[in-house]
# Entry
Amino acid sequence: MGFIVAVDGPAGSGKGTITKKIAEEMNLTSIDTGAMYRSVTLAMLKRNIKVDEIDKISNLLEQIKIEFKKIENDQKVFLNGKDVSLEIRTKQVNENVSPVSAIGIVRTKMADLQREMAKTIDVIMEGRDIGTNVFPNADVKIYLDATPEERAKRRYLQNKENGIEIPFEEILENVKQRDYIDSTREIAPLKKAEDAIYIDSSNMSIDEVVNEIKQIIIKKRTE
Ligand code: DC
# Structure
C-alpha cells in the first residue's frame, strides 16, 4: 500500500474540491469514491434495474468497468469506456444514489476496487466510509463537515458552474435526505472514525481547509 489519506464527510462538505487541490499540491492521486457509486447508479438506471434485483445487480457489477482518467488537468469518470462525468451529477442520479450505495454487494465491490486502486500509488480518497471501512489503517483520516444549508449552497453553485439548474430548496431537501440515508444505513454508514480529525468547514474558505489538511499530512509524512 502507498500513503493513504482518507477524507470522509457528508454531501457538499467540500471534500471534492479540497481533495483535488491537495492532490495537485502534494503529488497524491485523488479518488472520488462517490463518483463510483454514482456510476453504478447510472448503469442501473440505464438498464432499468431496481435496488431489490440483487441477481441483476450482481451481474452488472461483474461487467462494469469504472475508471478515472486525467484529461486536460481535469479528472473524468469513465463507465465502460464512456465519459460519464456530467451524467452522474444529474437529478435522477442524485435521487437514486443513496439507496444504491446501501446495497451490500455494491459496497463490497466498490471497496475492493478502491483498495486495488491504492495498491501501488499514494492516494487521497474521499467518500463516506474510507477511514472507517475501506482503509481503517489510513495514514491520515479527516472528517470534513459543514451545516446542511452551507453544503446545499455549495452544491447549488457547483451545479450552476456545470450548467445544471436545480433549485436551492430541492438541493437542500436532497442533501438532508441523503445525510439521513447515508448515516443510518446498516452497512458502513457515514460516521467519523474514532481517530479521524474533525474539521467543520462552514465558516472556512477552501484555502483555509486545504492548508489545515496539508499541515496534518506534512506532519504525518515526516514522522
Ligand atoms: O460524494 P457524493 O455526493 O458524490 O456521493 C454520492 C453518494 O454515494 C452518497 O449519497 C453516498 C454514497 N457514497 C457512499 O456510500 N460511500 C462512499 N465512500 C462514497 C459515496
The beta strands are 4-8, 29-32, 66-71, 74-79, 82-83, 123-127, 140-145, 197-200. The radius of gyration is 17 Å. The chain has a mean pLDDT of 94. The longest strand covers residues 66-71.
